[in-house]
Amino acid sequence: MAPQIPAARIIDTASVPALRWGVIGTGIADRFVGAMHAHTAQRAVAVTARDAEKTRAFAAEHGIDRVHASVAELVADEGVDVVYVATPHPLHRAQALQAIAAGKHVLIEKPIAMSAAEADEILAAGREAGVLVAEAMWTRYLPQADVIRQILESGVLGDVSLVRADFGFAMPMDPAHRLWNPELGGGAMLDAGVYPVSFASSVLGPPDAVRAMGRTAETGVDASANVLLSTPSGAQAVLSTSLLASLPVEASIHGSGGRLEVLSPFFGQSGLRLVSGALGQEEETTWRDETFATPHDGLGYQATAFASYVERGFLESPVHPHDEVVSVMATIDEVRRQIAAA
Fold first, then answer.
1. What distance in Å separates the CA atoms of residue 301 and residue 316, rounded to the nearest whole number?
2. pTM of the prediction?
3. Same domain, yes or no: 173 and 133
4. What sign does the dihedral 133-137-142-146 (CA atoms) show?
5. Are 25 and 156 within one domain?
6. Are 81 and 88 in contact (CB under 8 A)?
7. For the segment 261-320, what is each residue's pLDDT rounded down to a tens digit?
8. Quick one: 78 exposed, middle or buried, by C-beta within 10 A (0-12, 13-18, 19+)?
9. Which of 137, 152, 180 is the last residue of a domain?
10. CA distances from 82 to 13, 60, 100, 160 (A)
11. 85 DSSP β-pair partners
């Protein structure tokens, strides 16, 4: 009998309060705000960014009423409930701390900061201020993420011993581009590598050993990384990321009772293949999420989840808690250290 894939448990967008969002940055924020406005009750009401002309154009495109001249002005806006930080990684710490000090809930693009120490400082400040602070690891809020959690909880995979995940693409060298520029938080691990590390963490928990090999670009950032993580249970994760090569962007979980494959792109709306049974007698079931036309339309799920957590008085995401956010950053820190040292 083919294995059964459970239905996703999705939060009704009408069941949560419609929060007022202030946006810092207009890059990746374009996709997030577009998905949020198209598929949720959440609304961006204010924005600020470095380029005034681009910021006004962004506001006009997304129907945002207020354009602020500075981060200080935006976080002081009494009509803003949540601040979404969507700027280059090196700016996250200072901007998140400004928003927290102003009493705002904060959603911070991944990676949350440049290091585990910075992440810990941001999250501790949020807890002290009594506001919800979360990293925008949108993958955790997709329907397939809930299905994966249910499958793991069911025990159908048996004893999980291996997780695989990769995310990489060929990026032409341009020392000024944010991906290659160390001053802008460049490097494969901080941009793409955070996804496979976070996926492995969601299944296995924090590692107790990290081994990494990779290549360093002429600008000094990590251009690629191949990572082996070991955990106290003995389970391992094999992860890859690259700015030099196109990778499949797939993930899989392997256990004594079967395996679960997350289809490409594993970090966005895609699908699952659940395989059970012994070699030569395997049976499989495939489920695809075709809710939206493009994967990034799924960015709205995290906005709805965030609003539901605010309503319930949470200070951290139950599916992406603070200690795990810091642990993932600590793993990235160690991978980057090993590659730089080599």
1. 16
2. 0.96
3. no
4. negative
5. no
6. no
7. 999 999 999 999 999 987 888 899 999 999 998 889 999 999 999 999 999 999 999 999
8. exposed
9. 137
10. 17, 20, 10, 38
11. 24, 108
